[in-house]
Design goal:
single chain, 76 residues, mainly alpha, 0% strand
């Protein structure tokens, strides 16, 4: 199962709301292609790295995505 589908199912389960789908037209992707390319190149070359465990030690109040959705149901 794709990650996007898993996230969508988790949001539906946590909120009880079904999200509306929206269409992305090919011409929209064409307009954004250069920016997408720049972003992907930057993502590949970023010099910083971090581990999830180190982040959790520094920011113990950070939660899972599911608990975030449950706490902020009105925004989903």
């Amino acid at each position: 199962m794709k990650k996007v589908v898993k996230i969508l199912l988790m949001i539906i389960e946590a909120t009880g709301k079904k999200k509306h789908r929206f269409k992305i037209y090919p011409w929209m992707l064409w307009l954004l292609r250069q920016q997408f390319y720049k972003q992907m190149q930057w993502n590949k070359s970023s010099p910083w790295q971090f581990s999830l465990e180190e982040t959790r030690q520094i920011y113990p109040h950070l939660t899972s995505f599911r608990s975030f959705v449950e706490k902020n149901t009105a925004h989903f």
